[in-house]
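Local shape tokens:
==================
===
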Amino acid sequence: MQLPIKRTIERIPGGMMVVPLLLGALVATFIPDAPKFFGSFTNALFTGSLAILAVFYVCMGASIDFRATPYIVKKGGTLLIVKIGAAMICGVIAGHFLGEAPVSGGIFAGISTLAIVAAMNDTNGGLYMALMGQYGRPRDVGAYTIMTLESGPFLTMVTLGVAGLAAFPWQSLVGAILPLVFGMIIGNFDREMRAFLGRAIPVMIPFFALALGATLDLSKVWQAGLLGVGMGVAVVVLTGIPLFFADRLTGGTGVAGVSAASAAGNAAAVPAIVAAANPAYADAAAPATILVAACVVVTSILVPIATAWTYRVFGQGEDLAGEQEADADVLAESYQGASRAAR
């Protein structure tokens, strides 16, 4: 007897991240002592999120190809800079009013600068490439190989520092990016290692999601649902508008820009890593994880709708026949690397 477990989970936006996260949170809420009671590997499975994430970022880095056509570098680099720039601006504004601590009461309880920056800093690669495959240019899919540099806590730490909040020691900043860089070096020196490590990326997502969920008590974050919806809408609007114009300025129709206005599933892991590097963010980490996870779901629903509308209004008249001028081998390899990095 076969049950369609994987297919069912994948029908949920960001399901491979959201469903295990919720399962871990249910354990933490109703049977919080169960992992310690069983101990050994069971306890490690529920408490080893940082170790799992370290390996995840090595594999993610291995999927990033140093080689890319000029168009891919220009497009992907522009979208990367604009997305991070929008997150920095919002982080500076939020940091001025909120500081490091989360809001403690009212309808905005749980929101923090950490949650805002983490939600805005990273793009859902699988969603972006799926939308580009339907509405965009072939070369725009390969642009995601550059955008994968958003992955991990490094840029979130930098953004929080730019916002004038609690700084991170240089060792923490370097340590946050070293696994990704190490993976990039391995993957670019050996294509077989790239293929080998790249296959592990989607497999590891539900495991670190489960461990992250095990740190969340749902009874303390019940308000995050409605607030998460609002944050998800804000992510699409505040990043989608500048990304649309940036895409237009680089010769696109705006479709690729809007397709990148989402929150990545693995962004929900960033608050815990940031808090581990700087205890000043410890109180904000748990509610931020829930809020970012909510943003993943909301943006996964809204971005396809916004992309389809953008395509109907701005993109249908474009002639795609000449888009094969990019180097075919480089594009194919970039696409494969980006597909393995999708989250």
In short: DSSP finds 19 helices and no strands in the chain. The radius of gyration is 19 Å.
